# Entry
Amino acid sequence: MKNQFNNNKVFIGITPTSWWNDDFLDIDIGIPFGQCVSEMALAGFEGCSVGHKYPTDIQELTHELDIRGLRVSEPWTSTYFSIKDMYNKTIEDFKKSLEFIKAMGGTDVVVAELGGSSHQQPIALKANKAIFTDKQWDDVTAGLNHIGQIAKDNDMRLCYHHHMGTGVETMEEVDRLMENTDPELVHLLLDTGHIYFAGGDPLELAKKYAHRIKHVHLKNIRAPKMKESDTNNYSFKESILRGIFTVPGDIEGCLDFEPIFEVLAAANYEGWLVVEAEQDPAKAEPLVYAKMARKYLYEVIGF
# Structure
């Protein structure tokens, strides 16, 4: 497998979700921003997504990342095209994210449609997931094409993140999104853990949309914890707290990443491979798991 990716065009990043959680602010043991990004750099990563503890001033953030040899892999932007009267705010929020990532020298804006999502609520995750009407599907896909054009006009890429609890969670829903959006405007973010948790196969998804995948989140799954979550109808937060997610390279994880990497490399994938394991830092020491993931990726892809 080693060296099949072009290491001048593929970059290894990590999210701050191992250090604290940005959806559930009480999953936090008080690790400050400086410690988080220093440990990212110490573990050998070259980039990171943005968390709520990051400085909002562009110059300050650039300085803090530069001195650690890091750069921003992506900002997250929630879209609400499926909710009436949220169109204009969604466009405004997207433009702000686009402005930010351009100023930080990045290329990708990650979005997910959160209208009606169950993932941030204290309710059963899968039983209460968003189900779009045909009209909502039309609104979502038209809206994504619109902001995808805005991104393209700015030499940026819109990368759609299928996500648990949302109206684009399952393989079938990803298919519908891909079929009804412009491939030149709306790219796919492959999240290995989310699609597996949703009952899909990340390798199958990689094979099917290798030409549209422009961003990757590497999330591993502890299969017994997923079964427990499904059996007990846990919320997303409860699933996280009970340890459903872990990093690539953890022997407790059930996903095989090498075939996925082979598919992406064969399709000449260029972009970020971002480790994302939403874990409770009180139970999973962030630096330990960051180093575990980075060591695994070095061994598998060669850089």
Observations:
- The CA atoms of residues 5 and 265 lie 5 Å apart.
- DSSP finds eleven helices and eleven strands in the chain.
- The first strand starts at residue 10 and ends at 14.
